[in-house]
Amino acid sequence: MIEKTDLSFERAVLIGIVTREQDEDKLDEYLDELEFLTYTAGGEVIKRFTQKMDVPNPKTFIGSGKMEDVHQFVKEEEIGAVIFDDELSPAQQKNIEKILKCKILDRTGLILDIFAQRAKTSYARTQVELAQYEYLLPRLAGMWTHLERQRGGIGMRGPGETEIETDRRIVRDKISLLKKKLATIDKQMEVQRGNRGQLVRVALVGYTNVGKSTLMNVISKSDVFAENKLFATLDTTVRKVVIRNLPFLLSDTVGFIRKLPTQLVESFKSTLDEVREADLLLHVVDISHPNFEEHIDSVNQILTEIEAIGKPTLMVFNKIDAYKPEKLDEDDLITEKTSAHYSLKEWKKTWMNRLGDNVLFISALNKENLEDFRRKVYEAVREIHITRFPYNNFLYPEYDKYGEKK
Ligand SMILES: Nc1nc2c(ncn2[C@@H]2O[C@H](COP(=O)(O)OP(=O)(O)OP(=O)(O)O)[C@@H](O)[C@H]2O)c(=O)[nH]1
Ligand SMILES: [Mg+2]
Q1: Which of 15, 146, 287, 349 has its CA 20 to 30 A from that of 367?
Q2: Per-residue pLDDT at 372
Q3: What does the domain layout of the chain look like in residue ranges?
Q4: How far apart (Å, rounded) are the C-alpha atoms in residues 267 and 195?
Q5: 213 Cα–ligand 2 center, Å
């Protein structure tokens, strides 16, 4: 595994910009998420810097005055990492590093770092490593100045272009090696998937931290790692589940996020094969999150990217126990009623109504409405099952509660 930026106990500041497409409220929400990502990576956010601009500065992303403020703060407060919400170009990253003289990360770098920390199996590690090298390649020149500065002193001449070229070649070789390694594992996995027989395959998909693994555990009585941090799951777990008389395969996999780095989507292609090859998707949503609608869009966008959109899908709105609409007093005639004030009942009448029967409202944690969940999943799986195997003998005999055959 290549070096990762260690953010453990690191004091960090966040930087984001307000643009025409992204007003202050939106930026706030995005920075909340970036703060959660930083916390997941082990860092602590001390301050946020924001700036209004039409277009980012091509050299330093934010303007020079603002950069000076950040510089002062970094010096005075002993900040170890400065994290940008947007993707920085390799040149921007290099320039900013020169000014601030501390770790500079963008959103992609931060997400890659979390993936690197969390990858447990050699398969996940290989995929992350490939993504890291792809990210590193165009940034190599910048990295050298970094090393140069760190070592400094006598006898340390700046690296010539040739050394950077050598480095690029090494990284390129490494990338093609990792790709070959992944291709071999992919073949093995394909065979494994083929061996699973003809059972209907169901995949849990959704934004990170919405409760996919918790739901998997509840439904399949398994023990998949779940926690209140982002990207708890990086590997796919597949379990055989039986509802009433119907067996099927349920898989839990990596969560999605807004602007998931393309390097990661690409190198996690085979992990995501499970989603691509699924017959039915359970799109899990954290309805207690203020941005849940945007999360749905991000997930759909990634599903489109991996060519998994348009499959039969059940929308599973989870965490109903934690859903608290904002209060609107009856005599309050000034505050405009927005979706933040909707009760669950009101939500059901919105665009959710158009989803017809394909919606569910549950709490995986409190095991609320799980009967409804089982029934709807059963019906959807059965539908697929009987169209695929009209003369099928997979359906187990149904037993009543006394254990008698029906
Ligand atoms: N209040 C509430 N919390 C829940 C519910 N379901 C899950 N959680 C919590 O949400 C957090 C994330 O749960 P996970 O199951 O790890 O979520 P995930 O979707 O698998 O996350 P990633 O693997 O990171 O993509 C945990 O702290 C869970 O305890 C629920 O119904 N209600
Ligand atoms: Mg998970």
Answers
A1: 349
A2: 93
A3: 11-117, 119-195, 197-388
A4: 24
A5: 4
Give the model's pLDDT for residue 385: 86
Report how far apart, in Å, the C-alpha atoms of 228 and of each of 39, 132, 149, 306 are: 11, 25, 38, 26
User: SS3 for 28?
Assistant: helix
pLDDT at 157: 43
ipTM score of the complex?
Answer: 0.99
Contact in structure between 189 and 273 (CB atoms under 8 Å): yes
Using CB distances shorter than 6 Å, the residues near ligand 1 are 206, 208-214, 226-228, 230-233, 255, 318-319, 321-322, 363-365
Distance 59 CA to ligand 2 centre (A): 38
Atom nearest to 255 CA in ligand 1: 25
Strand partners, 286: 318
- pLDDT in the model for residue 401: 52
Predicted local confidence at residue 404, as pLDDT: 56
The tokens describing 2, both together, are 């290549």
The answer to whether 11-117 and 197-388 have equal CATH topology is: yes
Tokens of 386: 């009987």
**CATH code for the structural domain at 11-117:** 3.40.50.11060
Count other Cβ atoms within 10 Å, centred on residue 46. 15
> Which of 214, 284, 369 to mutate to test ligand 1, by most ligand atoms within 8 A of the CB atom?
214
SS (H, E, C) 300-346: HHHHHHCCCCCCCEEEEEECHHHCCCCCCCCCCCCCCCCHHHCCHHH
Phi, psi of 178 (to 5 degrees): -65, -40
C-alpha 62 to ligand 1 mean position (Å): 35
From CA 147, how far away is CA 150, in angstroms rounded? 5
Residue 280's pLDDT is 97
Domain 197-388 of CATH type 3.40.50.2300: no
Question: Which positions of the chain have pLDDT values less than 70?
Answer: 1-6, 141-163, 222-223, 390-406
Q: What local confidence, expressed as pLDDT, does residue 17 receive?
A: 96
pLDDT digits (tens, 9 = 90+) for 193-205: 777 777 899 999 9
State whether residue 216 is helix, strand or coil: helix
Residue 221: per-residue pLDDT:
75
